[in-house]
Amino acid sequence: MSDYMFSLESHLDAAQNLILAETQRLATDSGMNVWLTGGAMRDMLRGAPIRDLDFTVERDAVRLGRHLAEAAGGRVVSEDPLRRSVELEFPGRVCASIANARTEKYSKPGGKPQIAPATIHEDLVRRDLTINAIALALNRGTRGLIVDPTNGQADLLNRELRLANSGALFDDPSRIVRLLRFRHALNFEPAPRAQAQLESALEAGYASSIPPAAYTPELRAIAMEACAPAFLEDLDARGLLKNVSAALTGDKLNAAGLARFEKLVSGVLPATEKDGWLAFLTVLLEKLSPRERSEALRSLNVPKSDIEGLKALESRAKKLESVLKSAKIKRPSHVWLALEGAAANDVLMVLYHSAARVVQDRIRAYYQKYLPQAQEITEAQVAAAGAKPGTPKYDRIWKGLVTQRLNARPRKVEPAPEPVPLSAPIVMSSRARR
């Protein structure tokens, strides 16, 4: 195994490693070459957690994606027939994408591209930034080989943002927003040439070609990051938020509310629970009128399921707050049961709006004390009590063990006995010594 493969597998959790292995197996069985690319490689090389698995193949990505979803118990979220790509979700909160290696030719900024099959090298150099143009071979003969035609690894070391090709912003002006997002999310600075290209693209009016829906994936990617307010203020200062909503500027941007929201995210929720997109949207659009909010959501092309979730979010948060205020909650297990399974969106809305100290304290206690203790109950302990995973009995016994652990009184530490003092040495007088 190469050092890169060892590093990759060390950065993935068990569920992600399962999807990686299954993808390699299916690609090999189909005679396809497959690479791990994009954000997964960028994050691995800079030592950050890998959020999504991005695969590139030189043949039919959609077919491979469907087979992978079927084999690993996942589902196809979306397909792009033009770019021959597929988005997937799997158990364990694993998200993945599989796309064909391709070239894209544009006749005008933001126009519909002409797509053609390509090699992995050609695919990498047509991408946005050099740090996203790195691939790791997962094929039997070349497994663990790095492909880095634009020297993105050097830019990761230098903490610089460099465009992968001279036409990157002309071809797809939405990369302007993406460049600014990485500037804040990674705290990388654009290289001098990239900065000049950015300014030229803005002066030439390329931003007017950015469809409002192109902002959605960038907002979603940075929603739970502490730098989100700074990113949005940067977009506002450059006049880019007008593309989303003419009202979403200046004071209506709710920068103060976003800053408080991000402080709650980083100070309370663990990394594994940071999926508060709907709560973020609620705070982002908080100062808009109902009509302005509806127009902004329509511009962002927010799916119907998310809009329905937004409508129900306020009532769910109020219900959760009422439960947490209840005088019936007297023991740690009561707090755990109230919050176990609660959506991060609901918890964040309670934290953001509730002024009740007891509610704030109970949420913090849940994440900082009770949840870690509950996670210490192992599958082996539940199995020893005679339950099989996936059965109602297993869930009942697990909850019973967690309740017992949380409510157990801590053992009183007995103080160590004080050491017995040594007898004082006998000092003989000079007369006695004589």
Task: Outline the structure in words.
Helix 8 packs parallel to helix 10, helix 15 crosses helix 17 and helix 16 packs across helix 20. The chain has helices spanning 3-11, 14-29, 38-45, 61-71, 120-125, 152-158, 168-171, 175-186, 192-203, 215-222, 228-237, 255-268, 277-284, 290-299, 304-325, 332-339, 344-353, 357-375, 379-384, 392-407, 430-433; strands at 34-36, 52-57, 75-80, 85-90, 94-100, 102-105, 114-117, 135-137, 146-147, 160-161, 189-190. The chain has a seven-stranded mixed β-sheet with strand order 3-4-5-2-1-8-9. A two-stranded antiparallel sheet has the order 6-7. A two-stranded parallel ribbon has the order 10-11. Mean pLDDT is 91; it is low at 429-434. It starts with a helix and ends with a helix. The protein is 51% helix and 10% strand. The chain is α+β, with helices and mostly antiparallel strands and 434 residues long.
